[in-house]
Amino acid sequence: MTNATNIEIVSHLDRGISYGESCFETVRVIKGAIFAWPAHWQRFKRGGNAFGIDLAEPLDDQLNRAILEAASQFQGAESGDDCMVRITLTGGIAMRGLLPTPASTPHIFIQCAAYVAQPPAQLTVAEFPFALQAREAKFSSDYALTLRAYQQWKVAQQWHDPVEILIHHHGRILSTMSANILLFYKAPTQTVHEGRWHTPTREGGGVLKGIVRDFFLAQAMVTESLCELPMLSAIEAAVLCNSGCFVRPVAAIGGHTFDPEHPAIEPLKQRLACEIGSPF
Q1: Mean pLDDT of the chain
Q2: What is the pLDDT of residues 54-71, one digit of tens each?
Q3: Looking at the structure, do residues 65 and 199 belong to the same domain, yes or no?
Q4: Residues 197 and 265 in one domain
Q5: Model confidence pTM above 0.90
Q6: Above pLDDT 90, what percent of the chain?
Q7: Angle between helices 37-50 and 211-218 (to 10 degrees)
Q8: Chain-centroid distance, C-alpha 260
Q9: End position of a domain, from candidates 114, 139, 154
Q10: In degrees rounded to 5, what are phi and psi of residue 169?
């Protein structure tokens, strides 16, 4: 359990802190380029609209330039040409009262961090203990709920070190805590075809409309389908995908192990290599 160490007296708070009125996007800036920026922008807009915050179209180019400028000035990334940039939209300064007032002006915060590559993922399976909702944007409150779930798992399983989780809901595979998952089946099941990549369906909620996930779906390289826990025995390879790692091989899910260099992974990387902002 983390203990609070800082106490600060303030006259107001941002609505993102006070009421969770916030959404965000995280992009990886590689040599001054962002992968699929229009898709990130549209998802960011959907997040704002959900709170009644209208992001005007001219902000698209303005925010794009601000992200690239922040990345160019960031000194933490190796060689200064590969870093993560997070943009967070909040409802702005919050005075007393739940509902926003005409004086409330939305704020956008920009944060930079060095990109750190991770080894193949070792996933532990856990069931999400809360009701599922549609995830059309990256709402901060969704991730706060996932952190609450993680604390329940941690206490119940007596974990002492951080654990990467593959989340399911009543046996239906969803995603990890911060990335979508793609599964390559070596044998057909009732709902999937052999020799193809599949990703859990968004029908029923709980799965984020991911940028890299949607890219592969649009390229017909991945099929959206119902993925259930018993199917793990039919999987030959798995990867995580988001706008940080893009494609990160999975080495194990529970008691099932996979080849992180499976030949089915390479075509995913090769297709991304054709796009600007790709690390491949």
Answers
A1: 92
A2: 998 889 999 999 999 999
A3: no
A4: yes
A5: yes
A6: 81
A7: 120
A8: 21
A9: 114
A10: -135, 110
Q: What residues have CB less than 8 Å from 251, skipping those under 6 apart?
A: 119, 120, 121, 122, 257, 258, 260
Task: Count the alpha carbons within 13 Å of 6 in the hemisphere toward its beta carbon.
Answer: 2
Residues 203 and 90 in one domain: no
Last residue of a domain, one of 52, 82, 114: 114
Q: Residue 192: is its pLDDT beyond 50?
A: no
Higher pLDDT pick, 189 / 120: 120
User: How confident is the model over 43-58, as pLDDT tens digits?
Assistant: 999 999 999 999 988 8
Continuous H helices in 74-198: 140-157
Q: Same structural domain for residues 131 and 259?
A: yes
For helices 58-73 and 37-50, the axis angle rounded to 10 degrees is 120
Q: Does residue 251 sit within a domain?
A: yes
Average pLDDT over residues 177-202: 81
Q: Is residue 192 part of a domain?
A: yes
- 102 and 21 part of one domain: yes
Place of tokens 């899910």: 253
Q: What ranges make up the beta strands (E) of the chain?
A: 13-14, 22-30, 33-34, 82-90, 93-94, 107-114, 121-127, 164-169, 172-176, 180-185, 197-200, 222-225, 235-241, 248-253, 256-257
Owning domain of residue 61 = 13-114
On whether both 153 and 56 belong to a single domain, the answer is no
Residues 25 and 86 in one domain: yes
Asked whether residue 1 is assigned to any structural domain, the reply reads no
**Percentage of the chain with pLDDT > 70?**
94
Among candidate residues 30, 34, 25, the one with its CA nearest the CA of residue 78: 30
What residue has token string 């008691």? 255
Same domain, 126 and 28: no
| Identity of the residue numbered 206 | G
Alpha-carbon gap, residue 182 to 196, rounded angstroms: 10
